[in-house]
Amino acid sequence: KNEVEQSPQNLTAQEGEFITINCSYSVGISALHWLQQHPGGGIVSLFMLSSGKKKHGRLIATINIQEKHSSLHITASHPRDSAVYICAVESDKLIFGTGTRLQVFP
Amino acid sequence: GAVVSQHPSWVICKSGTSVKIECRSLDFQATTMFWYRQFPKQSLMLMATSNEGSKATYEQGVEKDKFLINHASLTLSTLTVTSAHPEDSSFYICSASNRKNNSPLHFGNGTRLTVT
Known about the structure:
The structure holds 2 protein chains of 2 kinds. Chain A is mainly β. Chain A is 0% helix and 60% strand. Chain A is built from no helices and 11 strands. Chain A has strands at residues 4-7, 10-14, 19-25, 31-37, 43-49, 52-56, 59-64, 69-74, 83-90, 94-96, 100-105. Chain A starts with a strand and ends with a strand. The relative contact order of chain A is 0.35. The model of chain A has no long low-confidence stretch (mean pLDDT 93). Chain B starts with a strand and ends with a strand. Chain B is globular and about 40 Å long. Chain B is built from no helices and 11 strands. The chains are: A mainly beta, B mainly beta.
């Protein structure tokens, strides 16, 4: 079993829909990252969390340390949000989830 | 925002040659740099962690003599793939952070290496 599990693996949405991507982990962590990888490979760091909730524009990330779970929400999704979203946790090293491929159609 | 420049963005080389990939933090001091590789449709795999001025820490299964990492300054780390083989063909990505102020990770745009 992977130490970091993401769900769903693939997600298709219509423009405007509210999207949730989940990340569960089984190790002790000092921080959790949500990353966005575009088709060309470039990676953008969206959030770094150690507790609570963060919001940036239409993106919201939450983390529950006790339950070892984090969610990334996208409100009013747009085709330009189409990308792979990766959860990564900082334990004794960086451990990555396998990613969630999101496609948003107009 | 903070920028990490990775160069080259793509490279094709012949088997047996060495390839150097550079990762520069342009507007912050990167106390720690990470190197990853990514195979098609798979997630990132951490190869090694390097702290400025000290030897890199390699992940299990990553050959340190094959993937040479140098982090000689707070703005530059290099990954050299030595005696490259076709199975080394992959997407290599660096990220950088300043651990002293707990800054988030900033990623380079990656280098696509093809070994023929």
